[in-house]
Design goal:
Blueprint (H helix, E strand, L loop, with lengths): L1 H21 L9 H31 L17 H13 L5 H7 L3 E15 L28 E5 L4 E10 L2 E12 L8 E12 L2 E7 L24 E11 L3 E8 L5 E2 L12 E4 L4 E10 L2 E16 L10 E17 L2 E11 L12 E8 L2 E7 L1 E12 L4 E12 L10 E13 L5 E14 L5 E20 L1
Parallel strand pairs: 9-15
Antiparallel strand pairs: 1-2, 1-3, 1-21, 3-4, 4-5, 5-6, 6-7, 7-8, 8-11, 10-12, 11-12, 12-13, 13-14, 14-17, 15-16, 17-18, 18-19, 19-20, 20-21
Helix pairs in contact: 1-2
């Protein structure tokens, strides 16, 4: 077939050369009309040969090349019975095994992140370690605590870097995420330094590492420039082991055992010697669960948590508070509602006791209360807490968007806490964001925060104007 193909091709080339030579303008003894007629006939002949050659090529591509000593089969159109039998055989053929399916899929790695600058002006005053966020718990607890008022700030602490991977296996996709940012907290509060966000892996239904607690819902977070977010929102990345028996487009069910932890407040007894030897004890994990139901209009999610918070006296002084423990618990209901194609409502209501360290902006989980019993004057108590979030994200166009909303956190203080202890926090913002290209965000935002003390009558408001510039990037690899 190959030699015949080149033979036909050579004949066409020679015929074309002869036609051009014979009927060229310098050929003598023939009229112009005869030349033209012969050229047309020759062209028609060449076209026929080309059509025949193309047909041979098409047949060669449809028929398998015969082995040495075999005759090439003649292609024929399959009959309806043959087609029907082929369909039956395809249906009877067993599906590929998980191992075979894994071989078909590809490994993928995504490297992503963004560079972000925050700058603005704070009209009031707050803890200087939290200069670039709005946290009601970090506002003044008495007049002039963080004076003076009014300051300009610049920050790149939201800058982020991450790596995600997906590897197909016989047990399902193995997914991992490693992500960090530059926002220092804890002993690094106020610093621009590396801070781990996610270090998590998941294989099929099981996952382990540090990531979002199942008790929270990251989709409630509004489209804001401010980093910390609504004070009444559950927001906690925790070290955990989780099992997700259901994960599809309509339902998600997750159970997890999480790293325990809590903070305590001695209140009016904080300076007592008898309390110096009292230490926390965590001898069991926190247990959380999440159930999400997704529909065309949005979703609704129910989450819960149960935890044991214990303490023991390690000192030699007779304890003011005997060894003991309390039950921490919480119920969190969240939702996203698609009002229109351009409007999404983000809502949350959470209530519980002793779950403050899972909240976005709340102080202590446990405090002391006066019992009125002279034999046991004080006892530990898990502080009840209520959180509310209500935000609306709106797209004005493909390049402009806005967010507006309010959040509340309210703590039921014990009767042994200090009058200046945190009782209530209010948080609100509105913004206008511009996306000149999909990977760039810039805009301005007005932020409001309010702190209310427990019982001394003091409260304070703070206001900020923030302007931010964010540049996203992402690179994916498939192999």
């Amino acid at each position: 077939m190959t030699m015949h193909f080149y033979s036909c091709k050579l004949r066409i080339v020679i015929a074309t050369f002869v036609a051009v030579f014979l009927f060229a303008p310098w050929s003598k003894g023939q009229s112009q009309d005869q030349d033209l007629q012969q050229m047309k006939e020759q062209l028609q002949k060449l076209e026929q040969e080309m059509q025949e050659l193309q047909a041979q090529i098409n047949r060669a591509e449809q028929v398998p090349t015969p082995k040495a000593g075999q005759q090439a089969p003649t292609p024929s159109k399959p009959t309806p019975k043959v087609i029907e039998r082929a369909n039956e055989e395809a249906q009877e053929t067993p599906a590929a095994s998980p191992e075979e399916q894994a071989k078909v899929k590809k490994n993928s790695v995504d490297i992503y992140g963004y560079v972000m600058l925050d700058t603005g002006y704070e009209f009031g005053q707050s803890d200087p370690n939290w200069f670039d966020v709005m946290r009601p718990t970090k506002l003044d607890s008495f007049k002039g605590q963080f004076a003076p008022s009014g300051k300009v700030y610049f920050s790149v602490r939201q800058t982020r870097f991450g790596v995600k991977s997906s590897t197909p296996t016989a047990l399902g996709d193995l997914k991992t995420i490693f992500e960090f940012e530059l926002f220092g907290t804890g002993v690094d509060a106020g610093q621009t330094t590396f801070r781990l966000r996610h270090a998590y892996g998941e294989l099929g239904q099981f996952g382990a590492g540090q990531t979002w607690s199942p008790f929270m819902d990251i989709d409630v977070f509004p489209n804001s420039l401010e980093y910390w977010g609504p004070s009444g929102m559950v927001f906690f990345r925790n070290v955990q082991f989780r099992w997700a028996p259901i994960q599809d487009d309509h339902t998600r069910l997750i159970f997890a055992a999480e790293r325990p932890g809590a903070s305590a407040d001695g209140g009016v007894y904080a300076d007592r010697v008898e309390l110096q030897g009292v230490k926390p004890k965590f001898d069991m994990p926190d247990f959380s669960l999440q159930a999400r139901f997704m529909r065309d209009w949005g979703y609704v999610q129910f989450a819960g948590i149960f935890r044991k918070i214990a303490w023991v006296n390690t000192g030699t002084t007779p304890p003011l508070v005997p060894n003991g423990d309390v039950l921490g618990w919480g119920v969190n209901v969240t939702s996203n509602l698609k009002f229109t194609n351009n409007d999404i409502g983000r809502f949350e209501v959470v209530y519980g006791a002793g779950i403050q360290n899972y909240m976005n902006d709340a102080p202590v989980d446990v405090s002391l209360r006066n019992t009125g019993n002279p034999n046991r004057p004080v006892a530990g108590v898990a502080l009840p807490i209520l959180g509310i979030v209500s935000f609306l994200d709106h797209n004005w166009s493909s390049k402009f968007s806005s967010s507006i909303g309010y959040s509340l956190v309210n703590i039921e203080n014990s009767n042994a806490q200090l009058p200046s202890d945190f009782h209530q926090g209010h948080y609100a913002l509105t913004n206008i964001l511009y996306h000149p290209v999909p990977a760039v965000t810039m805009g301005g935002e007005f932020q409001f925060g309010r702190r209310v003390n427990f019982s001394d009558g003091f409260n304070v408001n703070d206001y900020k104007l923030q302007f931010s510039f964010r540049y996203d990037w992402k690179k994916g690899f498939v192999f």
